[in-house]
Amino acid sequence: MKKNLILFILFSTISSFSDTTFTVDLNFDGKSEKVSFSVTETNNYILEINGDRVYGELICSYDPAIEIFDINRNDNRRDLAVSVWCEGDNKVYNFYQYSEGKIDSIGTLSAGYLEINGNSVIRGSKWMGFYAIMLDYEFDFRKKKIQLKTKEFYDVNQKAKVTSEFSLRTYRDDNSSVAHTLKPGDEITLVKSDVSPQCPDENISGEYAYIYDIFCDWFLIKTKDGRKGWCRLRDFKDKVEGLIWAG
Of 27, 101, 136, 216, whose CB is crowded by the most CB atoms within 10 A? Predict the structure, then answer.
């Protein structure tokens, strides 16, 4: 009978070269594979399994680790993830699978913690500055890819009080008409968010000019007297009080 296995090989720092080697049966054939994981001084890592090798970059620097999961209990494969803690209490996970003597990259995701129960679904919490959302991913074991199952909105339900005047838009469009103008003292509820927008980065041009930034997110805001409208986080974050920021 197969059992889920989670193995943590941790490094307290990546300021110096670190490495570890261990054995684990990754394909349930009764034979253990030799796994080596190395972290370099230049924030890169090397993952090697039975002589096949892949290279990756650690975009953050706190507690890099290798973890082993079983995303799909029916595909006779255990899956590896190189993880590292980043700002905002979120980890970045680079997932790999070993098959037919080759290491395949199967996806990257960011989450505070993961729920993996062997049914090809990965649930991951993500801290968004003052509230958390749950992201759902699905692993297609035939294509060997982890894909985000997108949602249009995420519940927020956070209360705040207006300290400086700002406007709510009718739609999620910076050019849409003003639905309401909020005044200092108005009590509001952030009902839900749209975390899909990307905003231009003034320091980048070309293909990668647009990046994800939580301050671009749209929020549906409702006043105590029932008025509603949309506003980007960047346009009201410094004009309200009562939101508990962390991370």
Answer: 216
